[in-house]
Amino acid sequence: MLNTLSGRFLILTTVFVMLAEILIFVPSISRFRLDYLADRLERAQIASLALLADDMLETELEAELLENAGVFNVVLRRDEVRQLVLSSPIPSPISGTYDLRMSSPFALIGHAMKRLVTPENQIIRVIGAPVRDAGLLIEITIETKDLRDAMIDYGLRILLLSAVISIFTAVLLFAAVRRFMVKPIKGVIGYMQRYAAAPEDARGIIHPSAGVRELREAEEALMQLQTELTQALKQRERLAQLGGAVAKVSHDLRNILTSAQLFTDRIEMSEDPLVRRLAPKLVNSITRAVSLCEGTLAFGRAEEPAPTFGRVSLYGQVEDILESESLAGGTEGRIRFLNEVPVDLSLRADPEQLFRIVMNLVRNARQAIEATGQEGQITLSAREDTETWWISVADTGPGLPPKARENLFTPFQGGIRKGGTGLGLAIADELARGHGGMVVLRETGPEGTVFDICLPKGDGTL
Question: What pLDDT score does 302 carry?
Fold first, then answer.
């Protein structure tokens, strides 16, 4: 109960209303004291006027007047003459004098609080202005016991009334909060729980119905999120099914094409001029098909394993990659491969994954230059600063077309050359992000393209 939203509203409302009532209580009790003393002055004035009307009153009647007025002495100042009108013995010395004509509100509050915390019965002198201008001033002496008792009784009644008001207000607010806030919030929670249990079930999508504008906006935002997520899940499921089918087809097709590749080796040895002329084209087509199948299978794996970090000599890896690409391209010297990586540079990375990152970028560069039929150059360099290792792959190819730049790291859409799949850049970027880094296109144009591999140094080296 207490840890619920409505329960806490109940407690806070009670506390805040009580605090407000306390702020009202202080001036109220001060006002009560002022009215009490003014009433005693008025009673004393009436008693003194009775005596002035007949100065032959008996002693017993004078004492009765003083008792009814609740005072010991009454002094009137009329016509600049100070006159002791009524008097009786004072049981103790006067402890203080209070002039109600000149007291500020803060002084009255201070006097009232002081009287509440002073339990001793004292004799005080009170000065005020007579009612109906019946003199210049009136002065009385009274005990403080009755005054303090009356103030306490009044204060208790005020506090009791404040408590009743606080509880009543809190209960009303509690009911209102449960009706207009807690119930709609619980409805939203129920929709979220049902949706989490079966996100593919469209019946779990919330239908906005809250009357409070903020809650309705939250419900509409949740509905949009659930709708988009449901559609994304359905699309993902379809893509997963399609990916599984493509992987199976690619696997079988790769085996078939590998067998066909073996047959083309024999066809190349044929003496028929037409066969010898068409055989290289057939071989290239089959090779590209095998490459597509292998790339699709590689990208279609469920996930890349987490990198296993170790110290890697970058220069040696680059040498292996450039030698492999030089042999694979069969470019016969038309493409130059330059390794400008510092010999002593080593970095912290997964050796196998780093090899694949660099190899994919170099292979893309080689294939881009080969597509032009012109000579070209691929240069690999590296540098480091206090926080990052930078590996650059620069080529003198034709540059990236606009479509390739728009979908640079999107599988099957960011292909650079005709017939390419765009998997190389997607795989390289995914592996780099697994290291906490990225692959960045620094520049591209007719003069060539430069890719940077950024790998953070992290929290130290091995």
Answer: 46
Locate the domains of the chain by residue range.
5-168, 232-297, 307-456
Residue 260 vs residue 146, higher pLDDT: 146
261: tokens are 């590749």
Residue 336's H or E segment, with its range, is: strand 335-340
Q: Under a CB-based contact definition with an 8 Å cutoff, are residues 372 and 398 in contact?
A: yes
Cβ neighbors of 142 (< 8 A, separation 6 or more) are 40, 70, 71, 72, 123, 124, 126
Place of tokens 């306490």: 152
Give mean pLDDT, residues 305-330: 83
Strand partners, 78: 81
Q: Give the residue, 439 or 41, on which the prediction is more confident.
A: 439
CATH architecture of 307-456: 2-Layer Sandwich (3.30)
User: pLDDT digit string (tens) for 284-307?
Assistant: 666 666 666 666 655 555 455 678
- Strand, coil or helix: 77: strand
CB atoms within 10 A of CB 127: 18
Interatomic CA distance for residues 15 and 3, integer angstroms: 16
What 194-199 contacts at long range (C-beta under 8 Å, 24+ apart), as own/partner pairs, is 195/226, 199/226, 199/229, 199/230, 199/233
Model confidence over 121-141: pLDDT tens digits? Answer: 888 888 888 876 666 788 888
- 402, with CB counted inside 10 A (0-12, 13-18, 19+), is exposed
The pTM for the full model equals 0.44
End-to-end CA distance of the chain: 55
Outline where 414-453 has alpha helix (H). 423-434
| 381 pLDDT more than 90 | yes
d(CA 302, CA 344): 36
Q: Work out whether the CA dihedral 401, 407, 408, 411 comes out positive or negative.
A: negative
Helix axes 213-267, 273-299, angle to 10 degrees: 150
pLDDT exceeds 60 at position 438: yes
The one-letter amino acid at 451: F
Distance CA 414, CA 437 (A): 20
Query: What is the pLDDT confidence band of residue 408, given thresholds at 50, 70 and 90?
Result: confident
Q: Strands 388-395 and 376-384: what pairing?
A: antiparallel
Strand partners, 311: 348
